[in-house]
Amino acid sequence: MRLYASPSLIALSAAPLVVHSLQLPFVGIDIQLPAVLDTHLNNIKSQIAQIQVPSFINKIIDPTGSSPLLSLHRDLVSIPSVSGNEEQVARFLETYLQSKGFKVELIPVQSPEYPKKRYNVFAYPEGGSRSAPILLTSHIDTVPPFIPFKDGLRTVYGRGSCDAKASVASQIIAAEELLAQKHITEDTVSLLFVVGEETNGDGMRHMNTLDLKWDAVVFGEPTELKLAVGHKGLAMLEIEAKGRASHSGYPNLGVNANSHIINALYKLDNLKLPSSDLLGNTTLNIGIMSGGVAANVIPAYASAEVAIRIGAEHFTDVKVLVEDALKGIEGVEATWKHPHYDPVFCDHDLEGFETIALSYGTDIPNLNGNHKKYLYGPGSILVAHGDNEKIDKSDLYEAVKGYKRIVKGILNAKAVVVAEKPKPKPEAVAPSVAPIVAEPVVPVVEAEVEKVATPEAPVNKDAKKNEEEEKVEYVTILPIDAV
Ligand SMILES: *[C@@H]1O[C@H](CO)[C@@H](O)[C@H](O)[C@H]1NC(C)=O
User: Fold this and answer.
1) Catalytic pick from 86, 176, 186, 197?
2) pLDDT tens digits for 405-417?
3) Measuring from atom 4 of ligand 1, which residue has the nearest CA?
4) Among 96, 288, 81, CA closest to 196
5) pLDDT digits (tens, 9 = 90+) for 25-74
6) I need a surface site. Which of 3, 173, 241, 292 has the fewest CB within 10 A?
7) Residues of CATH 3.30.70.360 domain(s) within the chain?
8) What residues does the Peptidase M20 dimerisation domain cover (predicted)?
């Protein structure tokens, strides 16, 4: 029996057994019961489950299970899906989305590195179309190792809980709610959840072979609920130096490869690289250095690996400077490794969002096309790949609202054209999605960032009302986290 001495336990101490049996929202507390008692309590629990209770009681007894958003997120996080092993989570999503009235295509993705069956999940509402103008997309693979789902009072833990199953779950619920509330028609939004984002981007790149295109694509990654202005590019450089081995006492007989590579790295480390107002400084990291075999041997070979996060406009702006810097240095050879990607500038022309510049990579450059690009999602990249990956439940709810506002904002901006179809019931169509005149897709915005410090600011006059309607109830009983 392991108990944490936290104030919540003092509150619980009167009835810890009941608490365990009912799965009150204290499940983050690790209370181990003897097996006999546990079985007994499970019996009681299953009897209670047969009693019809008012929904507010259900919300107290099982806050996760009674929330469509939290239970979808829990189910996603509970399924291991480290890159290369995404079949099970894809099949789960297929079943789930079909049950919610979506038409689902499992799109096989083949890669020599990953021999198992893998599928991108592409879905659109029944009666809608494959070519809906707005795509909500994220990824279903995670980095290793798998970490099981764990429910806390306010926070959920587990691999993928943040990156990116929080985005997947909130995008799906946002689409369901937009449809149910008739903010969009069936042919407005499609969903795509890809494999392989954490490794080589093969899932998203595969979409380029399918002759699909969108007017606007909303990418779901942890952005702390802010609209990303973009993310830095990445280039990796491998540097080798060749010398000639000899006795360290007679350096004039050898050529020291370490000395060469030190010269090169010193120059790179002090290189002034271009930045941009939107993405900030280009940064250079000397990640790996190796060279030599023993202290008393002149090293014949040395190597280093360097990663450059590009805040400039283009990779080439940095490439020229790096190559120039290394030109005069004797005995070194530098090779750009593949793949590299250019900085990504995202659209962020929607009112009511704070903005953020990011320094991590996404699938955005892997999807070809002239679509507008939005990048938004719950959670922080700072916990995304760690062993304490987590997401706040309130952030999941905020993200649902955020994705809905983004979709409505895109529609209000008239940047997309929803295909015109005869509508049997025109009164059921929300005015904001009436077929609108085509305007050229707005090119990437590179204007000065305008910080809008009012995340609640309404998208339009009706938005205030909508926000009221969208208020989600979720239970927070104790003022402290149980974990
Ligand atoms: C960017 O670089 C400049 C000059 O090297 C430095 O003063 C500044 O602090 C850097 N900005 C950040 C955010 O690191």
Assistant:
1) 197
2) 999 999 998 756 6
3) 281
4) 81
5) 444 444 555 666 667 766 776 676 666 767 777 777 788 888 999 999 99
6) 3
7) 233-341
8) 229-324
